[in-house]
Amino acid sequence: MAISSKPIVWGPFAAGGTLTAFITPALILLTLLAALGHAPDLLAYDRLHAFAGHGLARLGVAGAVFLSLWSAAHRLRITCYDLGLRADAVVATIVYAGALAGTGAAVLYLARI
Amino acid sequence: MAEEVSRKPYVRAMTWRWIFRHPRYVRYMARELSCLFIGGWTLLMVWGLKQLAEGPAAWAAFLEGLQSPASIAFHVLALAFAVYHSATWFRLTPKALPLQLGEEFVADAAISGAHFAAWAALSLAVLYLAGAF
What we know:
The structure holds two protein chains of two kinds.
Chain A: H1 6-35, H2 45-53, H3 55-82, H4 88-112
Chain B: H1 2-5, H2 23-54, H3 56-66, H4 69-91, H5 93-96, E1 100-101, E2 104-105, H6 108-129
Antiparallel strand pairs in B: 1-2
Helix pairs in contact in B: 2-3, 2-4, 4-6
């Protein structure tokens, strides 16, 4: 039986797609309010710093960053193929590496908070 | 064998122009391009984490930077694309998660409707807990 790596790539894509569908619009609305000069209470330094210092919140943020970046990376890979860019192995390496690098950076910054 | 017969096989040029051949393709591409905005916004938040870790001054500079016209335009577009991603994702749930109760399948509208309701409840909870209202 052929062993496929598809589920490994596709699992986080589906999970990330579901997670971003449920919470990303509300989260973007929070930073849009901040962009319009009406930053919600949570975005005040003391509150957000205390929130991000909590172990469970850190785990949640890191997980959300990973799933969001991975699903975006997977979609970008498929979109590149659809748009005629057929160097799939190169594209896949770049986008997945980017998602992992972004997650790594998030973990690093969270650890410093 | 086949290669020997057709020495110069016709390879159809693949371009991006097919997108505009049908409104359905445009909607498909709009959905797929949501990844640029969701991914881009997430990377912006990773940058925000860096600023948060550096201290109150760096965080204040981050919030200040969010208020630039380019950032506001990006946020409005990102919100629109994120909402479109959610709508398309939940509209597909009856295909991805068909639910059978006894002999009957649960109606498509009930499955996607439940997801839309959960989305609304979660969004309100996030906005409320963050102190947006």
